[in-house]
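Homework help board

Subject: predicted structure for assignment chain

Our instructor gave us this sequence and asked us to write out the predicted structure in token form, then describe one feature. I got the tokens but I'm not sure how to describe them. Can anyone check?
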Amino acid sequence: MRPVFLPAIFFLLLPAFVRAENSAPVKSDRGVWPALKRTWSATVEGAESAAKVTSSAVQSASHKVAGVFLPGESKAKKKTALEIQVVCSPSPVFLRQTKVLSVVVKAFNSGKRAQLLEFPSSQRADAVLRDTSGAIVGRASASASVKADTSLVTVNPGERLEYTLSLPTTGMLEGKTYTLECALVGQAGLTARVLISAK
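My token output:
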């Protein structure tokens, strides 16, 4: 009598065990396929993030480069130990002999701490020529190719940065005086001006 009831009870309870097992499936995150899925998902997310950062950098770089010498632009000068100097040759400019001005922009750290400069593009410095009315008659970056290559430059105490620019003289007239305005791109307040006579 007893052996007959045990199989019967087993067959009655078996569907209950099967339902309980199926209702709570166990997901395993081990193995080759889950690892590949995680790697693919991370790669896609990284690519999307990089695309957004690159697009933002390009827009930021183009905006800052174009806005270095906008007329009437007022930027708050930040306190810095960097000093900007400009050397232009030849000076004075004999227009019949000179087609291009050579401009050297120098930044010297006269302070006691290192200065960190963040450049929004591959362009480090720019220079413009203005006539007596303030209109721009020449620009060093007019023919330069600029890439969205954000970078940081450290200038230690006593160190000097030098950037050489070429500026065409085609917009200059004999007998006129011009203002050469130079700046480090993206660095508020780091500008210098010198007067140039055209002969």
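Reply (TA_rk): Your tokens look well-formed. For the description, you could write something like this. Strands lie at 82-89, 100-109, 115-119, 125-130, 136-139, 151-155, 160-168, 177-184, 191-197. That's the kind of observation they're looking for.
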